[in-house]
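Exercise 7.
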Amino acid sequence: MNISNIHSCYGCGVCAIACGKKIIDIRLNSDGFYEPYISEPSKCSDCGLCVEVCSYSHSSTTLQEQPKVAYAAWSKEEGVRRVGASGGAGFEIGRYLIGQGYKAIAVRYDIGRQRAVHFVAGSVEEFVASMGSKYIQSYTLDGFKAVNRKDKFFVTGTPCQIDSLRRYIRKFRCEGNFVLMDFFCHGVPCAHVWNKYVREKEKELGNIEFVAWRNKLNGWHDSWAMVLEGKEAKGESVDWHDSYNLLIKGKKGLINSRWAKGDNFYNMFLGNNCLGKACYKQCKFKYNHSSADIRIGDMWGDTYKDNEKGVTACVAFTLRGADVLQQCNCELVAYPFEQVAEGQIKEPIHYPGFGWNLVIALSKADFISMETLVFTSRVIGKINRILKG
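Solution. The predicted structure, written as tokens, is:
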């Protein structure tokens, strides 16, 4: 028994680190999503460990806990709050744990390969690279392969990645060395869509050198903006990693493309017709279902609707998570979970059926523009709404 027959899964990669033979890797499939494969099938002993730690192969979450406590949170350091996608609490949690001797395994954007990757940060300075949201699927193995049973780790990821990792560390009885954090997850879009978007932007900017998915130049509630800098951009060079003001300093040589103004990537991602199949059909992690110690996200509800600085929704599912929240450098305001999670998706997103296949096929075609892809996605969305109602 192994993962050779598992396709269109979560692509978390935990099966690869669990494999004692080290013959499992993950790669993009033809649809543009990560999935595992066995590089040397003849060496497989059929021990079944890869399936045992695979969240996709189980119908329930590893952690069967309801939220212990929920907070509105924001960093006490104004610069961190300003740069964070919401209130900067995720960074403060990591900064506190690194100070306690943990290694952080988080996500940064690899500009050379134009993809999101998990990496290991042993210092706060290294951890800074993980700040901000990345709305694409991450390649996990650069970070997850560093996991061992001796060191202490703080690991962030999508709920499905974290659920599989929880299965792994529980199997090897080292949960006490880990703090796991996920987030209220929308889903992950097809890599072909992101790559097409990047190629079109490179025609305007040259080679892209920096990407930020969110910024607050127009206020937190309108922070769904793509910010890109290219080598051919005019104006003086900007050091984006100089202090926490990286987005604010970046007015020269940028494209600032906002969802509110029709950004094509966000129209595709939030249009829900290019997510992974597992995001529609087998997501068991919405709302109050998590295997993490801590879940974070934007506190989008009415409570802070007039706040433009950003507020993080923080939920502790374990006592360990609750303790970490109390220790980090954040202002915490307790609310009922339902209030903190207001505006978050409660059920898996409806699968668009044939429309999904069409969008994925068009995303791979070089002669199809992002504008055409967005138009097609909108038509599919309208048809699905008519059929549903």
